[in-house]
Design goal:
The complex is a heterodimer. By secondary structure, chain A is mainly β. Chain A contains no helices and 11 strands. Chain A has strands at residues 4-7, 10-13, 19-25, 31-38, 42-51, 54-57, 65-66, 76-78, 87-94, 104-105, 109-113. Chain B is 0% helix and 58% strand. In chain B, the strands form 2 sheets. In chain B, strands 2, 4, 5, 9, 10 and 11 form a 6-stranded mixed beta sheet that branches. The radius of gyration of chain B is 14 Å and the shape is globular. The chains are: A mainly beta, B mainly beta. The interface between A and B is medium-sized, with 29 and 25 residues.
Chain lengths: 114, 113
C-alpha cells in the first residue's frame, strides 16, 4: 500500500530536549516536505527536499532541521524544542515536486512541548 | 507576499444541496491550484488539480473552476452527503518551480441529513 508513515504520532516533551520525527514513503517519490498546522493558520511549510541531499527552507524553518540521506526518508529534527513548536506536523511526498500531481500526506504527528 | 483566503466560517448545508467553497489569492499568478480534503486528526487527501489554462475540472460530484482574472477558485460538491463533511483546503505554489506550497486555512463543511 502506497503511504507516508510518520513516527511518533503523539509526543509530549519538555523544552530543550532534542527530538526527531521520522517520515518514510514507499512510493519512490523524489519530493518530500514538512508542514506544521496550527488553528487558524492552516498548513505552513517548514522544509522541503527535491531529492537526496537537496533540501531548502519553507516559510517557517526556524528551530527545525532536516536531512535527506535516503530517498525514502526525511526526518524532522528539533534540536532544542520550545513551547511555540507545539503543533500538528505533517510530512508529505510527491512524485517530482508540486504541480505535477498530488501531495501524499502522512497521518500527522501531534507534538506538545512543555 | 502570496496570500490565500478561504472562508473561515463553517459552511452548513442540507443533504442533497450543492456546496460551494471559495478560494481567493493575491499577489501571485499560480500555474495551478489544488484542492484537498482533511478530516479531523487526519492528513489532507488530494482531490483535484486545475491548471491556469483550464477553466473548469470535474471529478464525479466535484467541480472546480479557476478564474485567473478574479484570482479565485470555486469548489463545488453537488448532491452533497453527510459523508462530505470535512475541511477543504486549497493550495498553490509560490514562486517558480512549484517547490514551496502555500495552503489556505481551509473551510469546514457540515452537511446535515
Amino acid at each position: 500500500e502506497a503511504q507516508v508513515t510518520q513516527n511518533p504520532r503523539y509526543l509530549i516533551t519538555v523544552t530543550g530536549k532534542k527530538l526527531t520525527v521520522t517520515c518514510s514513503q514507499n512510493m519512490n517519490h523524489e519530493y518530500m516536505s514538512w508542514y506544521r498546522q496550527d488553528p487558524g493558520l492552516g498548513l505552513r511549510q517548514i522544509y522541503y527536499s527535491m531529492n537526496v541531499e537537496v533540501t531548502d527552507k519553507g516559510d517557517v524553518p526556524e528551530g527545525y532541521k532536516v536531512s535527506r540521506k535516503e530517498k525514502r526518508n526525511f526526518p524532522l529534527i528539533l534540536e532544542s524544542p520550545s513551547p511555540n513548536q507545539t503543533s500538528l506536523y505533517f510530512c508529505a511526498s510527491s512524485l517530482a515536486g508540486v504541480g505535477t500531481g498530488e501531495l501524499f500526506f502522512g497521518e500527522g504527528s501531534r507534538l506538545t512541548v512543555l | 507576499s502570496q496570500k490565500i483566503e478561504q472562508n473561515s466560517e463553517a459552511l452548513n448545508i442540507q443533504e442533497g444541496k450543492t456546496a460551494t467553497l471559495t478560494c481567493n489569492y493575491t499577489n501571485y499568478s499560480p500555474a495551478y491550484l489544488q484542492w484537498y480534503r482533511q478530516d479531523p486528526g487526519r492528513g489532507p487527501v488530494f482531490l483535484l488539480l486545475i491548471r491556469e489554462n483550464e477553466k473548469e475540472k470535474r471529478k464525479e460530484r466535484l467541480k472546480v473552476t479557476f478564474d485567473t482574472t478574479l484570482k479565485q477558485s470555486l469548489f463545488h460538491i453537488t448532491a452533497s452527503q453527510p459523508a462530505d463533511s470535512a475541511t477543504y483546503l486549497c493550495a498553490l505554489e509560490e514562486g517558480t518551480g512549484g517547490f514551496k506550497t502555500i495552503f489556505g486555512a481551509g473551510t469546514r463543511l457540515f452537511v446535515k441529513a
